[in-house]
Write a structure and sequence with these properties.
The complex is a heterodimer of chains A (about 110) and B (about 120). By secondary structure, chain A is mainly beta. Chain A contains no helices and 12 strands. In chain A, strands 2, 5, 6, 10, 11 and 12 form a 6-stranded mixed β-sheet that branches. A 4-stranded antiparallel β-sheet of chain A has the order 3-9-8-7, with no helix packed on it. A two-stranded antiparallel sheet of chain A has the order 1-4. Chain A is globular. In chain B, about 0% of the residues lie in helices and about 55% in strands. The chains are: A mainly beta (about 110), B mainly beta (about 120).
Amino acid sequence: GNSVTQMEGPVTLSEEAFLTINCTYTATGYPSLFWYVQYPGEGLQLLLKATKADDKGSNKGFEATYRKETTSFHLEKGSVQVSDSAVYFCALKSGSARQLTFGSGTQLTVLP
Amino acid sequence: DAGVIQSPRHEVTEMGQEVTLRCKPISGHNSLFWYRQTMMRGLELLIYFNNNVPIDDSGMPEDRFSAKMPNASFSTLKIQPSEPRDSAVYFCASSNSPEVQETQYFGPGTRLLVL
């Protein structure tokens, strides 16, 4: 079956630090990969996505590259801001299945 | 454009009561998903509809849960009778593409507390 494994949180960084949140997956076929972000008290928002191997998704300074050889989709940002504090979810969608399979989420706190 | 709209945003009820959660998908989207988020189990898909027809309800936990989509712009998730273990955040999401790269757009969620 499909599964997504995210690095354990919480993660606490100082403003302008470099961020990496690891995500690896197991899936049948060739999944599409997503990062969603959930700000406090809000729903999930799509942050970025990649639909095939070696694609790089990017948005708001965040990037993630679809690595088929390592089955990974790590999220990175060069310089985080306090406003990036949120929970980040890695997810996949595989084949004809409609549902997203989510990781457990990683809480990020950025301190000024 | 308005996003996915959910109501109520918060619901507190007593065990045994009926609870109805409501969702209005993004106009033009033909697929609707209900998810539940808990600390223990994370995000789980409960059911999804395509063109108002339930396609997969294998995630619905038990017969106390039911979902309907009477038209393209409205869906309900009902719990009757409710139990404390149903306390969670319930999200509705919609999309307009069945392809593998489809993006699901989430509503703000309904935070349910069953006492």
